[in-house]
Automatic annotation (TrEMBL):
It comes from the Bacteria. Keywords: DNA damage, DNA repair, DNA-binding, Glycosidase, Hydrolase, Lyase, Multifunctional enzyme. Signal peptide: none annotated. It comes from Pseudoxanthomonas suwonensis (strain 11-1). It catalyses: Hydrolysis of DNA containing ring-opened 7-methylguanine residues, releasing 2,6-diamino-4-hydroxy-5-(N-methyl)formamidopyrimidine. InterPro entries: FPG_cat (IPR012319), FPG_N (IPR035937), H2TH_FPG (IPR015886), Ribosomal_uS13-like_H2TH (IPR010979). GO terms for biological process: base-excision repair. It holds the Pfam family H2TH. The keyword Cell wall biogenesis/degradation does not apply. GO terms for molecular function: damaged DNA binding; DNA-(apurinic or apyrimidinic site) endonuclease activity; lyase activity; oxidized purine nucleobase lesion DNA N-glycosylase activity; zinc ion binding. This is DNA glycosylase/AP lyase, H2TH DNA-binding protein.
């Protein structure tokens, strides 16, 4: 369909756990549905999804890892969790959690995800300045929030969606390697320059991620995530299956990434 991108043109877009940049790609790919009425709804969500039928989609938004479908007096939040996926203008063999069929043809299907209705205005629910992909991103606010969490590990701080909405585990590992900070460094022990680098690179790497993902070369640019050797000094990378309160995989170089305690 004109103005729409099929899922086949975006292979494996959610092969890795969704992070902010992948949700931006979905928002852009599905933008052609905005302004259309939903003529039919299907899916196995326990939410009252039939209330969407007959309603006109007025906007799409992304906030961190949330994909938001806005209608006149409510919105629908899609969270892909660990294994969620979507299809545009096609279906998977498995049942959709939520499927929307639009006027003039075309459909949008979501799988293995969380579906929630939001009845308040989105501006009352979301702090857009915390989204690293948003034009309203506020690095000064991020630094203030970090300074209020001096005991937090750098790895946990980067995954805190109240501070860095959209940053996931890939971005976390790569940002810490870029700025040469050990994932178990305490936020309160980081020099001001390092704290500033952490905030700046969380956003910069997210946009690098977006560019590489669109070009299907993201994995080629990984320096430490799921790797075995540090590209800077050639030493074997350290790995932990579960690190910090977030209990997420961590890859780092014990030579060039300094531990601040």
């Amino acid at each position: 369909m004109p103005g729409l991108t099929s899922a086949s043109a975006l292979p494996g877009i959610l092969r890795d756990m969704p992070e902010g940049p992948t949700i931006v790609i979905l928002r852009e790919a599905a933008a052609g549905f905005v302004g259309r009425k939903v003529r039919a709804v299907h899916g196995n969500s326990r939410e009252p999804i039939q209330r969407i039928a007959g309603r006109r989609l007025v906007a799409m938004h992304s906030w961190g890892k949330h994909f938001l479908l806005a209608f006149d007096d409510f919105s629908v939040r899609i969270h892909f969790m660990l294994f969620g996926s979507y299809r545009i203008n096609e279906r998977k063999p498995t049942p959709a959690r939520l499927g929307l069929e639009f006027s003039r043809g075309g459909e949008l299907n979501f799988y293995a995800c969380s579906v929630r209705f939001i009845d308040q205005p989105l501006d009352e629910v979301y702090d857009w300045s915390a989204d690293v992909m948003n034009d309203a991103w506020d690095p000064a606010a991020a630094r203030r929030k970090l300074r209020a969490r001096p005991q937090a590990l750098a790895a946990d701080a980067l995954l805190d969606q109240d501070v860095f909405a959209g940053v996931g585990n890939i971005i976390k590992n790569e940002v810490l390697h870029r700025i040469r900070v050990h994932p178990e460094s305490r936020i309160g022990a980081l020099p001001p320059r390092k704290l500033g680098q952490l905030v700046a690179e969380a956003r910069q790497y997210s946009f690098d991620f977006l560019e590489w993902k669109k070009a299907y070369v993201l994995r080629k640019h990984w320096q430490v995530h799921a790797k075995k050797t540090c590209p800077r000094d050639g030493t074997e990378l350290s790995y932990r299956k579960e690190l910090g309160q977030a209990r997420r995989r961590a890859f780092w170089c014990s030579v060039c990434q300094r531990l601040y305690e």
